[in-house]
């Protein structure tokens, strides 16, 4: 997802944490992305299960929304939704994905933008 062609949202869920890069350093957007990254990383490293975090962030709607450029999560209804869906794909079992209405095949990810869930 991009706010402009020069300002993509980058999400890395490796290394046991979450890194969200978005916005110009020092901007409110970058600060909010860093805050969410830190909160999720500390939570996950402290043993908080990923499922309830993902469940709360999924389908949370705000701009920017739309195409992400992420092959695992082609579209999302917000940056938080994109992060949640990426975390779900990386951390949840197939049963947990099913409970959230997602699948590991990739086909369900696009439903985020068109399903109307969370409204």
From TrEMBL:
Name of the protein in question: ribonucleoside-diphosphate reductase
UniProt entry tagged with the keyword Iron-sulfur: no
Superkingdom of source: Bacteria
Region annotation Disordered: where it falls in the sequence: 1-20
Lineage of the organism: Bacteria, Bacillati, Actinomycetota, Actinomycetes, Streptosporangiales
Entry EC no(s): 1.17.4.1
Keywords: DNA synthesis, Nucleotide-binding
UniProt enzyme class: oxidoreductase
Domain TSCPD as annotated: residue spans: 16-88
Organism per entry: Actinocorallia aurantiaca
Catalytic activity of the protein: a 2'-deoxyribonucleoside 5'-diphosphate + [thioredoxin]-disulfide + H2O = a ribonucleoside 5'-diphosphate + [thioredoxin]-dithiol
């Amino acid at each position: 997802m991009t706010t402009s062609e020069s300002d993509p949202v980058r999400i890395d869920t490796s290394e046991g944490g979450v890194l969200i890069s978005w916005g110009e350093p020092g901007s409110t957007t970058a600060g909010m992305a860093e805050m969410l990254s830190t909160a999720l990383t500390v939570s996950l490293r402290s043993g908080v299960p990923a499922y309830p975090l993902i469940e709360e962030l999924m389908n949370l709607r705000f701009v920017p929304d739309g195409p992400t450029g992420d092959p695992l999560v082609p579209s999302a209804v917000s940056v938080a939704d994109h992060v949640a869906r990426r975390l779900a794909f990386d951390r949840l079992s197939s049963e947990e994905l099913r409970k959230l209405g997602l699948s590991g095949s990739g086909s369900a990810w696009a439903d985020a933008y068109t399903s109307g869930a969370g409204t």
